[in-house]
Structures are given as C-alpha cells and as structure tokens.
Amino acid sequence: MRLTRFLAPPAIAAGFVLLWQGLILATGLPPFLLPGPGAVAAAVIAQREVLTGAALRTLAEVLTGFALGAGSGATLAIAMAAWPRLAATLRPALLISQVIPTFALAPVLTLWLGYGMAPKIVVTALICFFPVASAFLDGLERTSPVCRDLARTMGAGPAREMWHLRIPMALPLLGSGLKLAAIYAPVGAVIGEWVGGSEGLGAVMIHANGRMRIDLSFAALVVVTALALAFHAGISLAVRRGLARFG
Amino acid sequence: MTAAPVLLSGTVRMGARTLFPPLRLELAPGRWTALLGPSGVGKSTLLRLLAGLPIGGTFEGRVENRPPVALMAQDPALLPWLTARQNAALGARLRGEAADRDRLAAVLRRTGLADHGDKPPAALSGGQRQRVALARTLMEDRALVLLDEPFSALDARMRLAMQDLAAELLRGRTVLIVTHDPAEAARLADRIFLMTETGLTEEVAPACPAPRPPADPAVLACQGALLTRLTEAPACA
Ligand SMILES: Nc1ncnc2c1ncn2[C@@H]1O[C@H](COP(=O)(O)OP(=O)(O)O)[C@@H](O)[C@H]1O
Ligand SMILES: [Mg+2]
C-alpha cells in the first residue's frame, strides 16, 4: 500500500513521458511544433540560469499573492460569521465574484498597476481569496449547536466564542480552502506574467513562443508544473501538520 | 436552601402548531426534578427555555427566578483540541478567566479523571468523556443544573455508574433531568413529571433518597407505573 503510494507519481510521470514520445513518433510532428522530452530536458539544462531566476520571481509572486489572498479571505470569513447581517449583504457579492473569471482581469490590472510584480500578486491574491473565504465561512457557520449552547450558558462573549470555539472548529474547512487555493495560485501568477512584464516563468514562455523557441517554452512549462506541484505539496503538508490536533 | 423556586409557565407554538398547551413547571430548590416523556413532545424545548437559550418556536409565558445554569447533554461536546482538564475548565477559558487550579484538581479527582487530565478526548472512552462533561458542569458551580438525556448514549452499566456519580456530585443543587427512561427517573428524581401532548402530570416518585438501587422494590414499582403511564399516553404526531 505504502510502496504503491510512493511509486505512483514517478510511474505516472514516466508514463506521461512515454506517451509524449510515442505521440511524436506516431504523428511525425516536427520539433518546432512539439519538441520531444529529450529536447525539452536539454533546454531545461541549457537555460537553467534563466529558468531558475524566472522561477524564483514566480515563486515570490505566488507566495505573496497566496498569503494576501488567503489572509484577506479568512479575515472576511470571520467578519461575515461574526456579523450575520454583513454575511447576508455580502453573500450574493461573494457568489458573483466567484463566477467572474479572475484571469480576465489580468490585462486591466496590468493597465492599472504597471508591469512590475503588483498585478501578478493581485491576480494570485484574487484567485486565492474566494476558495478560502467561502470554505472557511462554511465552517464558521456550522459550529456545533451543542457547543454554542454551552458557550452561551457559560457566559462567553461573541469574541471569545469565535476565538476559542468557532475558529478552531472551522480550521479543517479552512485547510480545504487553502489547499484548493494552492492549486490555482501558480496559474494566477503565470497568467499575470503572460499579460505584461518581462520576468517570471510566464514571461519566459511568451518570449520563447515569440522567438519560435518552443523547446524553451516547454521547459518553462515543465518548471511551472514542478513549482505548482511543490507549492501544493508544501501547503498540504503545512495544513496537515497545523491541523493534526484540531481533527 | 431558601431560594425561591424556578418557575416556568406558558405555552410554545411552532408556526400554526401548538407544541405544548399552557403548563406550569416548578423546580423544587435543591432537589432533582425529572421530566419524562416520549421523543418530540418538547422536553428539550422546555429545558432550553429554562436555560435562556433560543428555541425553534415562540414562547408565550414566563420563567421566574431563573438563575445562571449549567448545561449537560447527551453529546458531551468536548473540544478535540483541548485536553480533558482543559475541557473541564472550558467555562473559565470562554469567559477569559483563569481556572481555579485547586478546584479543577478536586473536581477531576471526584469524577475519577485524576489520571486522565492530560489526555485528549479521542484517547478517552465514552464513559470517561461523559465524566469530563460532568466535571465541566461541576466546574461551572451553578445553582441550577439542566441535564438533557445526559446518559442515554451509554451502555447499561456505564449509565448506572454515571447516574450514581451525578447524584452524588450534584446533591444539594436544583437539577432538572430530561429523560425518556422511566428507570432513570425512578432512580434519581425527587419529583417526576410526565410530559405528553396534553401537558404535564406529576407522578409519584419513590420516597427513599437518591441514587436508589435499580432493583429496589419501590424503584421497580415506580418504573413500572411510569412505563404504564407512558404507554397509555397518546402517541405523538
Ligand atoms: N429549532 C427548531 N425548529 C423547528 N422545530 C423544532 C426546533 N427544535 C425543535 N423543534 C420541534 O419541536 C418538537 C419538540 O422538540 P424537542 O423539544 O427537541 O422534543 P424532545 O426533547 O421532547 O424530544 C419536535 O417536533 C421538533 O421537531
Ligand atoms: Mg430532546
């Protein structure tokens, strides 16, 4: 059981590479349309300095945007749980904002905020905001009624009930929201980089495409994927560690 | 105890439906009162009114001389991230006070939890968890204690042990115990009220002091009478 769990990811990766190479052999697509795994691996090695620099930049945007988005999402959830009338007012807005494709805002944000890190961070933060806010609010609104009765008869004020009872009880759902946000966060940063600016893995991909360096474009894609997987794994681990005792 | 008795009088409506007709329940100070009845007649609603908690319907009536209460229900509702000791002292935590260390140690000892104080609820048995809930209730040190089917999820042996412990530790307080178990009412209560759709009727409780042995003839007779009265009562919608 354990062994298969450890072997599954490398096996899937190997299968994917085989399929990729097989597709090229079967269709005869030229390397400037679809480079093979070997060519992409070579590009990763040859361009390692460019890719490392770009990856660090993207990672910085992902971390900052995730922290900002998750932090403000969690704060809003607590405010909405504490003031039901605020929740009633904001709930429709939250729902509508959830169906807006945040990626579509990237060009506007670039227009407003320029070509630096700011618009990338904001896209990432917006993407992380909603899953965190809605999952956490869900948890905060489902505090066990028996516990709330207890808190009332014990004379707990709303603030202490929130801090000692409702927030810890909702942490598992906050964890689910964070893990979901961690999946989308790197995508947000990369899309921000596509739209404007010259740094980060997204910019490397756009530039490589423009110069028909499709192998470099794929190399950047591989690095983005690795970064996204690593980020998600890191957040999942942190959530599991942090929440172990809140079961 | 010279305190005036807690008195509830009134009726509860749930939309168009009358949950219970106008009734009067007086809790004798320092004694155990049992409220016995089938599921759904409104026992928990009555208890919530006494606790000052919101109910699902509208209450027309009043509660007089309601002191602060301590609450204990079937679900021990322990917080999984706190130890048994911290759970027992939850009230102080929720009020932002420091728990009285000596009293906490004494209460844990009396509830048989002296060796389990540092364990999380997940490491305790069902009976031990219910004892933590009892310890938490005792820590509140309230004049009125409201028990809502506190032992109905326990197996027979554990239930008897918990009844004995609760009777001993809550002696002298005004206690209302809601139950659907005639044996429990017969063992523990000084006064027994039967609650049906048509209202409250007082039944005769055994005269000897609680907790009474389960096989005591007076307890068995009372239990039998209560069971008969329960089955005579019209079934709830
Ligand atoms: N919050 C609520 N909203 C609507 N109906 C409720 C609510 N709480 C209780 N009821 C209804 O009131 C009736 C009595 O409930 P309850 O007091 O819990 O009865 P008991 O404790 O005797 O089983 C039940 O029919 C239940 O469905
Ligand atoms: Mg009930």
Automatic annotation (TrEMBL), chain A:
Segments crossing the lipid bilayer: 66-83, 95-115, 121-140, 170-196, 216-239
InterPro entries, sorted: MetI-like (IPR000515), MetI-like_sf (IPR035906)
Membrane topology value: Multi-pass membrane protein
ABC transmembrane type-1 domain location: 55-233
GO cellular component: plasma membrane
Subcellular location: Cell membrane
GO terms of biological process kind: transmembrane transport
Key words, A-Z: Cell membrane, Membrane, Transmembrane, Transmembrane helix, Transport
PROSITE patterns for this protein: ABC_TM1
Predominant location: membrane
Family: Belongs to the binding-protein-dependent transport system permease family.
Protein name: ABC transporter permease
Taxonomic source organism: Paenirhodobacter ferrireducens
Automatic annotation (TrEMBL), chain B:
One Pfam family this sequence matches: ABC_tran
Keywords assigned: ATP-binding, Nucleotide-binding, Transport
GO molecular function per UniProt: ATP binding; ATP hydrolysis activity
PROSITE patterns the record matches: ABC_TRANSPORTER_1 (PS00211), ABC_TRANSPORTER_2 (PS50893)
Domain ABC transporter as annotated: residue spans: 1-222
Protein family per UniProt: Belongs to the ABC transporter superfamily.
Official protein name in the record: ABC transporter ATP-binding protein
The species this protein was found in: Paenirhodobacter ferrireducens
